[in-house]
Amino acid sequence: MGYQEIKPETKPAKKAYVSLMLWFVGRAIQAAAKTDDQVKKEFEGLPDRFTFSLGVMPQGPYMIVGKDKNGAVKYMGSNPHAQKVDLQMNIKNLEAAILLFTFQEGTAMASCRDRLILSGEVPDALAVVRILDIVEIYLLPEIVAKLAVKRYPKWWSPVSKNVVRGKIYIRTLLGI
Fold first, then answer.
1. Is 3 a member of any domain?
2. What is the rounded CA–CA span in Å between residue 146 and residue 67?
């Protein structure tokens, strides 16, 4: 007597959306590290040549971001096996990733609901989450960002926030 193997349903549109979001966020982290002082400070607190990945289990997609030998923050692509990764943050499944990347659920709530798996040092993971929150604040309109992050900063002046936001969008799109 054998058992029939149940294969998960493929969801190409959702996977493509999450892939696009991870690509964009990875490049936005690189841009924010050159533009925003808070992001720079968070990366300075991380070890030299620190690399982290954020991805969806079991087979991706992923984004990898890290510091190069000069300390510059770089988006390093989507293959977590191509380089050594110090911190792995994995979303348990595609449906949980959709909740995160459609901003129906923030990172803190996803952690509480046991949707994330961490492999690495907790202080480093907290720094990465702070970086992700800052980048989300820049990328998203205020009404959506308030849903995605735990605390939306009230001390930013609209002019300075929008100038930095513009710089981050330009750098993200151009990859500089």
1. no
2. 29
Split into its structural domains, the chain has a count of: 1
| Residue-wise pLDDT tens digits, 97-142 | 999 998 888 887 888 888 999 999 999 999 998 899 888 888 888 8
- For residue 36, the enclosing domain spans 12-174
80 in a domain, yes or no?
A: yes
pLDDT digits (tens, 9 = 90+) for 32-58: 999 988 999 999 999 989 999 999 988
Alpha helix segments (H runs only) across the chain: 12-35, 37-44, 94-101, 107-112, 122-139, 142-148, 158-174
Displacement of CA 51 from its chain's centroid (Å): 12
Burial of 28 (0-12, 13-18, 19+ CB in 10 A): buried
| Cβ-contact 63, 75 below 8 angstroms | yes
Instruction: Give Rg (Cα) of the chain.
Output: 17
